[in-house]
């Protein structure tokens, strides 16, 4: 009787061992597949609603959700997100810490010389924001007036370029480092005279806070589109992302994300996706 019991126990242990080995082999398969992917990190400041922001502790926004939607068509990469200070985004790209940047980024020749641009994922013209009773009606009126901005932005460069052409009466730029929501609050409190920023972000924050501003769309002649930016060694990832954006454009996903996050249809013309 004892012999049969020992044989039964040994048989059970053997079956259990085989079952465990089978489970381990099965679970190892996807792990090996995942390990073959290249890990890439998207850098974002996470403070520029509606493009990149945190909601209930989760990072979301138009740029973020476009990348998430595009990732289903991208092979060979594990994409994650990292919030960081604005001034650290391109420093991190240069050091190899980040491979993508998503922060309502516009086109500049300086960036294009160092990084790769995606197809445009939205169109987002610049606006001039002033108090209702301001005597500023256009860019031609900003001489001697004060604005707030951050270093390295396309909006700061616009004012800097304007100053270069109007050296006799330049505008004053306070490089505050504040996010746009805080800058609009400061503008409403008359701490400076005007703000140049993108239309979608301004209209979103103005609506949320009930500010009474004059919002003037600018004809700057510059590219008004919004992009994802890639490190210069990410050609394959950029190519796959662009192909994915075209699919999202064609199947209506990009339009839906624009409506959900930007509050309207802000897609570029399809002929710009080439």
TrEMBL record:
Keywords: Signal. It comes from the Bacteria. It holds the Pfam family SBP_bac_3. The keyword Signal applies. PROSITE patterns: PROKAR_LIPOPROTEIN. Residues 39-265 form the Solute-binding protein family 3/N-terminal domain. InterPro entries: Solute-binding_3/MltF_N (IPR001638). Residues 1-21 form the signal peptide. PANTHER family: AMINO-ACID-BINDING PROTEIN YXEM-RELATED, MEMBRANE-BOUND LYTIC MUREIN TRANSGLYCOSYLASE F. This is Polar amino acid transport system substrate-binding protein.
């Amino acid at each position: 009787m004892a012999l049969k019991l020992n044989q039964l126990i040994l048989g059970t242990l053997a079956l259990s061992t085989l079952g465990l080995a089978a489970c381990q082999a099965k679970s190892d398969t996807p792990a090996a597949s995942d390990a073959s992917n290249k890990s890439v990190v998207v850098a974002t400041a996470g403070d520029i609603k509606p493009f990149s922001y945190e909601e209930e502790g989760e990072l979301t926004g138009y740029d973020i959700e476009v990348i998430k939607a595009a990732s289903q068509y991208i092979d060979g990469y594990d994409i994650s997100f990292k919030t960081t200070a604005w001034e650290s985004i391109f420093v991190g790209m240069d050091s190899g810490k980040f491979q993508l940047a998503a922060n309502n980024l516009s086109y500049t020749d300086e960036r294009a010389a160092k990084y790769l641009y995606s197809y445009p994922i939205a169109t987002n013209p610049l606006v001039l924001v002033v108090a209702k009773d301001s005597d500023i009606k256009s860019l031609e009126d900003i001489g001697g007036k004060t604005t707030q901005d951050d270093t390295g932005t396309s909006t700061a460069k616009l004012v800097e370029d304007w100053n270069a052409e109007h050296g006799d009466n330049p505008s004053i730029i306070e490089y505050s480092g504040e996010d746009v929501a805080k800058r609009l609050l400061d503008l409403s409190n008359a701490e400076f005279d005007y703000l140049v920023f993108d239309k979608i972000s301004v209209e979103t924050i103005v609506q949320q806070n009930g500010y009474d501003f004059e919002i003037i769309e600018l004809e700057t002649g510059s590219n008004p589109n919004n992009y994802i930016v890639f490190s210069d060694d990410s050609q394959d990832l950029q190519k796959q992302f662009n192909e994915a954006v075209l699919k999202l454009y064609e199947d209506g996903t990009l339009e839906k994300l624009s409506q959900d996050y930007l509050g309207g249809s802000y897609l570029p013309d399809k002929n710009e996706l080439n």
